[in-house]
């Protein structure tokens, strides 16, 4: 195998660039409309356009960077990410550079650059780190994987995650914690760990969740006495607002507004923009889309995301380097969770968390980080090597 | 190698598993989206139309009211109100805190605080003491019995404990009770009509007072002070029992609406069109504001000058003469334009609204209706003469006329001299009864029905159709004994409201056409310059309710009889109207009533209701009047006679004097000329 001379295709993924371009256009378009609702007077759509130009440049550069280098430098990246989170934890809350916004310290406000959310970067770094760990592990135990080595792998994966989760929980940014959980699950599935372990690790939380939902609607007193007693009031409120938005009018305020706006959109959309959608240009951009252009608009956006994820999947299939496949799986997990979580919360399926809709919501860090990740994916395609005998 | 291949070959499969999960999640999203938008879309769209409140609406003032001559009678005054928007997420402590801060800047009236308010406040602020009110056993037994321990606590608070709340703390309670009395998420007025200082103090501190806001409100201002506000009605918060109806009409919970009389009746016209201000300060700068407009204005049929004259006259005649009255002094007078039903003036000494809500036995004033009923039914003719001698009935006191010198009279004399016997004879004949005979109870019932059938046609004992939200139809005595039937014929059995009496006389003056009385002549679009009225948006046309089923000749005969009352040599109103410079037709009435004295609690049986109805000029009636002075003493019992007649005379004089003055005074006022043209136009149409 080593004797074969690898040749690279050096092909840009034009299809994916096109889909990303579509997202950029849709994003600016709907942010423009969200802005018309009179909540803000900043020209968000122009700024978003500038972010996209920057993000495309970042992606383009990243494409040319051979992803296999990450295998060697992921600890450096991890160290950098952890440093940022630690710095945020130590400095914040601080009016100047790490302010308290919406009850959490998640942002650096830096001169010139603007607001930066370290957790956006950290999740990507974590995917790289975990992929590298899985790749190394599987190389080492390629011949004799047993349940014991599987557990060792799980342990190795958990090690870098723990400090990150701890720091995120302190912000608090439970949304990012959940996202990291999703990435972990996605990577665990593809890592080759025995289905026995996987099914237990996924099944038990699912069961717990089902029990929770059952208790909430049937025997709420049990929850009040146990879980809710341990949680912060704002978290309890969010759960109430999520599962019972019309009754907990204050907590479910955003959900009710979003649901009403989306529902009124019906099949083709409504021109009645009289409802106030909170955070219309960021967290609730999907509500704007499906309110304005109805089921058609909403379904189109969901389909476009599906196409994007499918393209990543195809890249994973074509790549003949396992590390690339793990990266792709990690990003599919991350993006799918973000999309599902954001749209799900607009549709009242999931609780309201501060998740942005990747590529559509307004926000420089989010757009650039996502495009950086996708650039990395395209780099897998670009640097994919074909071996003569394989 | 085999094992690694094995592991590697797992990868595509596992990627497929992962992607399958993604597919499931996305399918769930599409399904949910379809469910919300396509299945439930209609519901949400309706919700959106109803519930969305993206903008702050600026209250627009209500329409003003002009009198018939274009004088503003009810105006608006701009005031500032302090509102508090309650929310379920605000804790009791935070609310109390705000109440305390507010009470420092506001001067609050502590009069209206109830015991319950104090107790609630006490329990809220003195938690430890509140807990010690109930022993643990009491708590336990309360929860067993399903009794709210809070209710028990309320009972246990002593006055002594309550008296702990004093001075400035009382003001806190006053603010607090207003704050919690509103609906959640809807501004509640805590104090209206803030002083300039109060408004300033609050406005600079709005930041630290979440939920508190200042609101531009308009307050009703009555230009003619005390005159007439009773009928204008009042404006207030939407009553709880009608809140749904108002919300359905697009009102906000915090809106002020007309809650009684004209304000309520014409709410839809008076209601202003709200201005809209896009939410948040950001939008305010962009001029995203539509200005509201004042509601439509009302032009009343009332002549405020005449109204004031009438009130002065009534005041002079009955005011400060409590000795003449069994209870408080009282009198009602209504002046109406017979051909249109327009009310020119309406006065009630105790309560102006009594003209439609209080009813009295009106005595002989109803006799024209009895005469017409008798003539139309054929039981008497123009040539029927009846000798006025007392009638004795079995089981009833003798019936006689007030005067014992009436003699033998036909309809003219019966009206002129007010013969009760002539009327009783009509009633008896309707019941097929002759003196000394026996009553047939079926026939008596028939006679009751027949007489009320005629009375109702004049508006007596039935609703007048006046443009007010409610009116009394008077009280019918039902089928009494045969003696009561005779009393009914001269107005001493059923009771009628002053407004009914006015409609009755107007119907006679109007040759038998009964017209709905109304206070409002026209609805006009609001004109920013209030000194000029806007264009007419609705003209209230005279609405004929019915034509009397009485031959015209009989109506003429009744009118002649009324003329005799004033001009006849022994007419009962001759001394009051004989020298009037205009020709009047009228009828006096003195109903003997038994009334309980509020002072002594004893029944007084020598009291009378003094009444008068009339119209002028006789040939072409312009004004009809009904006056009732209830529960007075006659001269022989230490009272005064002819009070109603005097009021009527002076009111008529005032009307004609004003009529003479007006064209000269207002000759330059185009509005009046225009109005007069309209009026003459109406007349020619008829």
Automatic annotation (TrEMBL), chain A:
GO: which molecular function terms? Answer: lipid-linked peptidoglycan transporter activity
Q: Point out the coiled-coil segments of this chain.
A: none
One GO location term (cellular component): plasma membrane
State the annotated membrane topology for this chain. Multi-pass membrane protein
Keyword Transmembrane included in the entry's annotation: yes
Which keywords does this chain's UniProt record carry? Cell cycle, Cell division, Cell shape, Membrane, Transmembrane, Transmembrane helix
Q: Where in the cell is it found?
A: Membrane
> Which Pfam family is one of this chain's hits?
FTSW_RODA_SPOVE
Signal peptide start and end residues:
none
Q: Which InterPro entries match?
A: FtsW/RodA (IPR001182)
Any stretches that span the bilayer, and where are they?
A: 12-33, 45-63, 75-92, 112-133, 153-169, 175-193, 200-223, 284-310, 322-340, 360-380
Provide a GO biological process annotation. regulation of cell shape
User: Does the keyword Amino-acid biosynthesis feature in the UniProt annotation?
Assistant: no
List the PANTHER family. Answer: CELL CYCLE PROTEIN, PEPTIDOGLYCAN GLYCOSYLTRANSFERASE MRDB
Q: What's this protein's name?
A: Cell division protein FtsW (Lipid II flippase)
The species this protein belongs to is: Sinobaca qinghaiensis
From TrEMBL, chain B:
Q: Where is the Penicillin-binding protein transpeptidase domain?
A: 332-653
Where composition is biased (Acidic residues), the residues are 666-686
Q: Where is this region: Disordered?
A: 661-686
Q: Which InterPro entries match?
A: Beta-lactam/transpept, Beta-lactam/transpept-like, PBP_dimer, PBP_dimer_sf, PCN-bd_Tpept
**One example GO MF annotation:** penicillin binding
Determine the domain of life of the protein's source. Answer: Bacteria
Q: Which GO terms describe its biological process?
A: cell wall organization; peptidoglycan biosynthetic process; regulation of cell shape
* Keyword set, alphabetical order: Cell membrane, Cell shape, Cell wall biogenesis/degradation, Membrane, Peptidoglycan synthesis, Transmembrane, Transmembrane helix
The record's annotation in Pfam families points to:
PBP_dimer, Transpeptidase
What are the residue boundaries of the Penicillin-binding protein dimerisation domain, all occurrences included? 58-286
Q: Which membrane topology describes this protein?
A: Single-pass membrane protein
The GO cellular component terms are:
plasma membrane
Cellular localisation: Cell membrane; Membrane
* Family note: Belongs to the transpeptidase family.
Q: What is this protein called?
A: Cell elongation-specific peptidoglycan D,D-transpeptidase
């Amino acid at each position: 195998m080593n004797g074969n001379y690898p040749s690279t295709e050096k092909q840009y993924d034009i299809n994916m660039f096109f889909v990303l371009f579509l997202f950029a256009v849709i994003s600016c378009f709907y942010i423009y409309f969200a802005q018309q609702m009179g909540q803000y007077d900043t020209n968000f759509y122009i700024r978003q356009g500038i972010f996209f130009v920057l993000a495309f440049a970042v992606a383009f550069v990243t494409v040319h960077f051979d992803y296999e280098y990450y295998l060697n430098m992921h600890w450096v990246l991890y160290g950098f990410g952890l440093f940022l989170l630690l710095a945020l934890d130590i400095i914040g809350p601080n009016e100047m550079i790490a302010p308290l916004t919406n009850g959490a310290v998640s942002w650096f406000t830096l001169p010139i650059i603007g607001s930066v959310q370290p957790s956006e970067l950290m999740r990507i770094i974590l995917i790289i780190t975990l992929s590298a760990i899985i790749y190394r592990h599987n190389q080492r135990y390629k011949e004799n994987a047993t349940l014991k080595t599987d557990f060792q792998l799980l342990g190795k994966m958990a090690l870098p995650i723990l400090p990150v989760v701890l720091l995120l929980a302190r912000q608090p940014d439970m949304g990012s914690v959940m996202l990291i959980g999703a990435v972990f699950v996605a990577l665990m599935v593809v890592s080759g760990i025995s289905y026995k372990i996987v099914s237990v690790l996924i099944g038990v939380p699912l069961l717990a969740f089902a029990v929770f939902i059952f208790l909430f609607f049937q025997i709420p007193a049990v929850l009040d006495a146990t879980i809710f007693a341990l949680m912060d009031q704002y978290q309890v409120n969010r759960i109430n607002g999520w599962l019972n938005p019309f009754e907990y009018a204050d907590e479910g305020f955003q959900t009710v507004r979003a649901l009403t706006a989306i529902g009124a959109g019906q099949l083709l959309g409504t021109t009645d923009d009289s409802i106030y959608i909170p955070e219309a240009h960021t967290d609730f951009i999907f509500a704007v889309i499906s309110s304005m252009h109805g089921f058609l608009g909403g379904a189109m956006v969901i389909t476009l995301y599906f196409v994007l994820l499918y393209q990543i999947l195809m890249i994973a299939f074509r790549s003949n380097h396992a590390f690339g496949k793990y990266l792709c799986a990690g990003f599919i997990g991350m993006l799918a969770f973000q999309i599902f979580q954001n749209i799900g919360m607009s549709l009242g399926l999931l609780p309201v968390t501060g998740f942005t809709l990747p590529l559509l919501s307004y926000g420089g860090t989010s757009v650039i980080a996502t495009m950086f990740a996708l650039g990395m994916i395209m780099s897998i395609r670009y640097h994919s090597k074909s071996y003569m005998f394989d | 190698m085999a094992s690694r291949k094995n592991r590697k070959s797992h990868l595509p499969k596992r990627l497929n598993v992962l992607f399958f999960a993604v597919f499931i999640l996305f399918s769930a999203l599409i399904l949910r989206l379809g469910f919300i938008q396509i299945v439930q879309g209609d519901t949400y769209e309706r919700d959106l139309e109803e519930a969305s409140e993206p903008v702050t609406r600026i209250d627009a003032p209500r329409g003003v009211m002009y009198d018939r001559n274009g004088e503003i009678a009810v105006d608006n005054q701009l005031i500032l109100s302090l509102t508090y928007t309650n929310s379920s997420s605000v804790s009791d402590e935070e609310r109390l805190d705000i109440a305390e801060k507010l009470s420092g800047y506001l001067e609050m009236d502590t009069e209206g605080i109830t015991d319950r308010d104090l107790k609630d406040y006490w329990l809220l602020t003195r938690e430890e003491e509140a807990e010690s009110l109930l022993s643990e056993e009491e708590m336990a037994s309360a929860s067993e019995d399903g009794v709210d321990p809070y209710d028990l606590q309320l009972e246990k608070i002593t006055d002594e404990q309550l008296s702990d709340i004093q001075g400035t703390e009382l003001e806190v309670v006053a603010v607090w009770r207003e704050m919690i009395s509103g609906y959640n998420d809807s501004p509640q007025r805590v104090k209206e009509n803030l002083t300039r200082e109060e408004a300033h103090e609050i406005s600079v501190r709005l930041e630290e007072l979440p939920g508190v806001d200042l609101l531009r409100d308009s307050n009703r201002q009555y230009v003619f002070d005390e005159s007439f506000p009773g009928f204008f009605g009042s404006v207030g918060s939407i009553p709880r029992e009608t809140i749904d109806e108002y919300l359905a009409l697009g009102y906000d919970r915090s809106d002020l609406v007309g809650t009684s009389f004209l304000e309520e009746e014409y709410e839809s016209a008076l209601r202003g069109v709200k201005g809209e201000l896009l939410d948040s300060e950001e939008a305010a700068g962009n001029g995203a504001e539509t200005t509201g407009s004042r509601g439509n204005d009302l032009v009343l049929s009332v002549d405020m000058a005449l109204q004031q004259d009438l009130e002065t006259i009534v005041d002079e005649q009955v005011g400060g003469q409590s000795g003449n009255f069994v209870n408080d002094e009282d009198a009602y007078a209504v002046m109406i334009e017979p051909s249109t039903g327009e009310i020119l003036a309406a006065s009630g000494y105790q309560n102006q609204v009594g003209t439609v809500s209080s009813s009295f036995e009106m005595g002989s004033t109803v006799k024209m209706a009895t005469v017409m009923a008798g003539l139309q039914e054929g039981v008497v003719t123009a040539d029927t003469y009846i000798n006025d001698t007392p009638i004795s009935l079995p089981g009833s006191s003798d019936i006689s006329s007030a005067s014992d010198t009436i003699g033998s009279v036909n309809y003219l004399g019966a009206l002129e001299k007010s013969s009760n016997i002539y009327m009783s004879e009509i009633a008896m004949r309707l019941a097929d009864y002759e003196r000394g005979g026996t009553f047939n109870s079926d026939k008596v019932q028939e006679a009751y029905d027949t007489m009320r059938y005629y009375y109702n046609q004049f508006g007596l004992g039935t609703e007048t159709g006046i443009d007010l939200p409610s009116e009394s139809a008077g009280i019918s005595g039902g089928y009494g004994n045969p003696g009561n039937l005779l009393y009914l014929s001269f107005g001493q059995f059923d009771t009628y409201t002053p407004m009914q009496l006015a409609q009755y006389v107007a119907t006679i003056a109007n040759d038998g056409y009964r017209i709905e009385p109304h206070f409002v002549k026209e609805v006009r679009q609001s004109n920013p310059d209030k000194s000029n009225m806007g264009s007419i948006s609705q003209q209230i046309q005279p609405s004929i309710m019915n034509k009397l089923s009485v031959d015209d000749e009989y109506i003429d005969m009744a009118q002649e009889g009324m003329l005799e009352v004033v001009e006849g040599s022994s007419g009962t109103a001759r001394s009051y109207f004989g020298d009037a410079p205009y020709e009047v037709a009228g009828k006096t009435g003195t109903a003997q009533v038994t009334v309980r004295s509020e002072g002594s609690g004893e029944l007084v049986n020598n009291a009378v209701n003094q009444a008068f109805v009339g119209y002028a000029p006789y040939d072409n009636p312009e004004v009809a009047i009904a006056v009732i002075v209830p529960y007075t003493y006659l001269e022989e019992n230490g009272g005064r006679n002819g009070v109603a007649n005097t009021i009527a005379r002076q009111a008529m004089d005032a009307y004609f004097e004003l009529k003479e003055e007006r064209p000269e005074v207002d000759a330059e006022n185009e509005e009046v000329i225009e109005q007069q043209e309209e009026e003459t136009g109406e007349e020619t149409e008829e």
